[in-house]
Amino acid sequence: MFPNFIIIGAMKCGTSSLYHYLQLHPELGMSAIKEVDFFIEENNYNKGISWYQSQFQGDFKIFGEASPNYSKAHYFKGVPRRMYELVPRAKLIYLVRDPIERIISHYTHNYSEGREHRSIEDALQELEDNHYVMCSKYFWQLQHYFEFFQEDQMLIIPSYRLRDERRATLQQIFKFLGVDDSFYSNDFEQQMHKTNKKRRKGKLSRFILESPVIKTLKGYIPDSVKDPVKKAIRPEVTKPELSSATRVKLQEYLHADVDRLRTFSGLSLDGWEL
Question: Any idea which fold 5-195+246-265 has?
C-alpha cells in the first residue's frame, strides 16, 4: 500500500495538526509515524519500499503521510523525483504561513532544541542560502515539484485558515482528496501543538533526552511525568523579537517569492506582512 496524498510541509506551519485532524476521518489512513521522510536519501530512503508500505495499514479508502522535510529542497535533494517515480498520481498538500513568522518559529524551535546558539539577528545576518529563509521561500520550494506533478495535484493551505476557519478548510481538503467532505468530529475543535513556553535543551538534557533508551521509552511516558522533568532541566525560552531593520530586510528579500505564490495559488494571503 502506498500513499494517495502527501503533506509536503512547510515546517512550523501546522502539519502536525493537519495530520491529527485527517486521522479522525474514517476514510483516511495516516502513516504509522508522522514524519516518515522516506523520499529523503539521507534519512529513510534506504530502508526500502517494503518498509515504506508497512507505514500504511488498515482498511481505508485512501492513505497519506506528512513530512515537512519534503519542502527543504535546498537541503534535501531529489525528493520530488523519487516521489514521482513511486507515487506519480499522489496529491500534494502544502501548508504555508506568514514567512517571517515561520522563520521566527523555526529559529525558536532550533534554539530550544539546543541546535542553535546564535542570536536571531546573527542567524539572519546573511539571507542568501540561509536555511531559515529558504524554508520560507514557498514558491521556490514548490517549483521543484512542477517538473513532475501537475498543478491540479497540489493544494496550498494558509495555516491561519486551518486555525481560524478549520471546518471549512478541512471540508476543502476532504473534497480535494475525494473523501466525504461532510464528515465532522468534535475533536476538530482541538488545536494541536498550541504554542506553550519553550524550554531550551542544554548539554545535560540533550544527553539524557536523546539517549537511545530515552528515545525508545519517551513515547510511552505520560506528559504528567515528562513535563516536570523538562521544567527541572530545561530553562524557559522567550520568543525573540526582530529588529525593524532585519524585518524590512526579510520583507524585501521574500516579496517576489510571495507575489509568485499569490499568483500561482490565487490566494490573497491576508494578514501576512508582505
Answer: Rossmann fold (3.40.50)
- 237 three-state secondary structure: strand
The C-alpha cell at 133 is: 529563509
Cα–Cα distance measured from residue 151 to residue 154, given in angstroms and rounded to the nearest whole number: 5
Alpha helical stretches, state H, 87-202 = 99-112, 120-123, 131-134, 138-146, 159-164, 166-177
* 90-126 per-position pLDDT tens digit: 999 999 999 999 999 999 999 999 999 999 999 999 9
Q: Are 250 and 99 in contact (CB under 8 A)?
A: yes
Query: Which one-letter DSSP state was computed for residue 66?
Result: E
Q: What does pTM read for this prediction?
A: 0.87
* Among the listed residues 154, 162, 151, 177, the one whose alpha carbon sits nearest the alpha carbon of residue 71: 154
Q: How far apart are CA 91 and CA 65, in angstroms?
A: 11
Calpha distance 36→216 (Å, rounded): 17
Q: Say if residues 199 and 231 touch (Cβ distance below 8 Å).
A: yes
Domain ranges of the chain: 5-195+246-265
Query: What's the residue count for the chain?
Result: 274
Residue 175 burial (CB count, 10 A): 13
Tens-place pLDDT, residues 207-261: 565 666 664 565 557 656 666 766 666 667 889 999 999 999 999 999 999 999 9
Sheet arrangement for strand 28-30: 28-30, 62-66, 5-9, 91-96, 154-158
Torsion of CA 73, 75, 78, 79, to 10 degrees: -70
Query: Distance (Å, rounded) from C-alpha 246 to C-alpha 125?
Result: 8
